[in-house]
Amino acid sequence: MGKPRPRPPTRRPLVEPAQLSTATQDEARKADVKVGALAHAILNSANFSSIATDASGVIQIFNVGAERMLGYTAAEVVNKITPADISDPDEVIARAKALSAELGVTITPGFEALVFKASRGIEDIYELTYRRKDLTQFPAVVSVTALRDDAHAIIGYLLIGTDNTARKLVEAEQKKLDQRLRDQQFYTRSLIESNVDALITTDPAGIITDVNKQMEALTGCTRDELIGAPFKDYFTEPERAEAAIRLVLAQRKINDYELTAWSRDGKKTVVSYNATTFYDRARNLQGVFAAARDITERKRVEAELKQATAAAESASRTKSEFLASMSHEIRTPMNSIMGIADLLAKTSLSDEQAKYVQIFQRAGENLLNLINDILDLSKVEACQLELERTGFALRDLLEKVIEIVAGRAAEKDLELVWDIADDVPNDLLGDPTRLSQVLLNLLGNAIKFTESGSVTLRVTRDKNAAVPTALLFSVTDTGIGIAASKLQRVFERFTQADSSTTRRFGGSGLGLTICKRLVELMGGTIWVHSVMNKGSEFAFAVPFEASIESTRRDAGPVEAADAAPLVPLRILLAEDSPDNCAITLAYLERTPYSLDIAETGEVACTMFASGNYDLVLMDRQMPEMDGLTATRKIRAWERANHRAPTPIVALTASALKGDREKCLAAGCTAFLTKPIKQAVLLQAIKDRAIVEASRPTEYSIAMDGNFALGYPSIVTHIPAFLQNRREDVTTMLDALTRSDFDTIQRLGHRMRGSGASFGFQMITDIGAALEREGARSDEVASRTSVGKLSTYLDTIDKMG
Questions:
Q1: What single string gives the DSSP state of each residue in 754-777?
Q2: How far is Cα 574 from Cα 581, in angstroms, rounded to an integer?
Q3: Fewest C-beta atoms under 10 Å: which of 275, 595, 655, 792?
Q4: Percent of the chain whose predicted confidence (pLDDT) is above 70
Q5: 747, 686 contact by CB (below 8 A)
Q6: What is the pLDDT of residue 406?
Q7: Which residues of the chain, if any, have pLDDT below 70?
Q8: Sheet holding 427-430, edge to edge
Q9: What is the pLDDT of residues 568-625, one digit of tens each?
């Protein structure tokens, strides 16, 4: 290690300097400089390592390339170590053994193994793993040359190494590609052979070029026998088989082309062929690829499937009929029970009586919630529950939700907190009813399972960048918590974290299941975090579209409705239940409304024609003539007598999919589900009164002046509302050119829900027509209605 570096032998000039001319000497010096520069450049190249050793293997020269590759400086290795010290020791040992066996001599592991061949004058280039100073390794290709003096005695060795990492990676990648190709070829052939169909390829002339084992089984011939034979020869109708080839060449594909194949043993099989043309990489036609399936099995499966479908549809109808019947039979007496309970609560009661009424009310609410849960779950599972897509104000919705649960929180002295992040948009498009249902369920659970502390509702933007429009809702409580082992099951039907909670707190175990289904139906996800005895957090993220205008589904703003005095109305109630009639009469006491009662639909039609009613409350199920038939008859009478439509509010104990649509299609203006609370009924009547107050007389195109006086805060938004409708005209005309009737139906629904709220009943009427026409994909009628809307907006502009 401590040997002095040997001096290179002095090269003696062939001619003495004194013998050379000055010019010749200059040229010689330039040549020496050039050679020296080249030698220096080679020695200090950073692209490969040059390591020169003395005869015993100690490093004497360590160039820049070696420093870069190995991480050592020349000073750290020169006169200190040998190249074996920077090589993989296992590989050095293996090389010594291999050379010993190859050359029949004993070679000591170490530097000798690296230069043995070179020392014998044998050209030696080998692969070796070098170890860097930081102990990382890389593959290298090493070329070894023995350095000799003028007497041909070895004075050292030169090891030139190049980093082989890139080539190794390329080789490895190539091996992977080669293996992948082999695997793909094997997989493709296996796929062809394992296919249940008989597969066959032909050239454009119909000569078979390849088949699979299923084709061999179908024909009773071997693959070698089939290849090269005409396709048509293996079918009972050769002309039809040949026509199939011509047809697929002309049309590029055929589907369900029936042929009868025959096998060598005479067996005939009816098969259905699906065929297509196939091409090479240059898009040159190569022939026809066909798949044949024995349709006997398919026909059997189709028959079974048809039978199973019929059975499923029958079961679904039976279930729907049962649910409809159950809903009606339970809701009808529930209307009386809960109505009487509400009325009793408003009378003078002793403390004991008030306590009993509260129990009465709570029991009714629980039973109604159970009915609603069962119906909702049935709708979701039957894919019958459809989401609305309407505009709503998020903060208004949350205020109402908090208002509903605030009483229960106050009873338990719980702190109820809610917060909306500043960057959360207020005006949204979505289904506010289902969002409220999920929030009420989660907040109700949080309050129910929390004895002390707080319940918090927070709304923020979801941090998931994949869904930038999603909002994150979280409900956190300080309640009893849920065991970690039970968290995975809380969203299952009829499941609670602990069976004892059912006895202690009550509940059907359906609420969270419905929340999960509703959130998923809205395109979101729901999850829970909880710690026993410390509380729980239920959170869900749902995408919502921001809305330019927050349209209300109900006619007129709640604030304006509450502030405005009640308008005297003559109301006709069509109801066959004396109890429900009594409750409705009690509900309308101390109001300026007068009420007449018709016990059947037929009587209701007669009374309507002879009276002058402002509003009809129509029970759906009545003897002799049901409510929907009566509604249609009333609408027909109005048209025949040139009367403006009177608001008809449907009252029904049925709450299944399609009930609302059936009522509206029959001509009803609104839809209420029994049992109906007093506040809900009064609000519905009040809303209809607002709509009628804003209805232009004799379809006047101008907005009702009384509306402007009653709702000045809304009037300021009318220019933007009308501009949005003008944009709707452009959007719908464009949609009609693409037969996009979903857009027609969606925008019509939006106008139907918002026109009258801004004082433009005509826009509501046109919107309702567009919604119906879009649902029917009626282009002619839709274009006519869009034209009416455009003309109406132009006339409003002219009236300025």
A1: HTGGGT-HHHHHHHHHHHHHHHTT
A2: 9
A3: 595
A4: 78
A5: no
A6: 85
A7: 1-23, 25-26, 28-46, 299, 316-332, 334-336, 362-386, 465-467, 493-510, 548-564, 653-658, 689-716, 753, 756-758, 798-800
A8: 390-393, 427-430, 545-546
A9: 889 999 988 887 888 888 888 888 898 999 989 999 999 998 888 889 999 888 888 8
Contact 235, 263 (CB under 8 A): no
Backbone angles phi, psi at 572, to 5 degrees: -105, 125
Q: What's the whole-model pTM score? A: 0.36
Strands 593-598 and 569-574: parallel
Pairwise CA distance, residues 395 & 388, whole Å: 19
Q: Could you tell me if 70 and 133 are in contact, meaning their C-beta atoms sit under 8 angstroms apart?
A: yes
Residue type, 257: Y
Residue 502 has what pLDDT? 44
3-class DSSP assignment, residue 603: helix
pLDDT at 75: 93
Q: Is the Cβ–Cβ distance between 599 and 576 less than 8 Å?
A: yes
268-279/253-262 β-pairing: antiparallel
Cis peptide leading into 675, omega within 30 of 0?
Answer: yes
- Give me Rg for the CA atoms of the chain: 45
Which of 530, 535, 435 is closest to 488 using CA atoms? Answer: 530
Decide if 115 contacts 146 (C-beta within 8 A). Answer: yes
Please name the amino acid found at residue 324.
A
How far is C-alpha 126 from the chain's CA centre? 56
Give yes or no for a contact between 603 and 625, defined as CB atoms under 8 angstroms apart.
Answer: no
**Alpha-carbon distance 347 to 354, whole Å?**
9
- Report how far residue 456's alpha carbon sits from residue 443's, in angstroms, rounded to the nearest whole number: 8
CA 731 – CA 737 distance, rounded (Å): 10
CA dist., res. 646 & res. 617, Å (int): 11
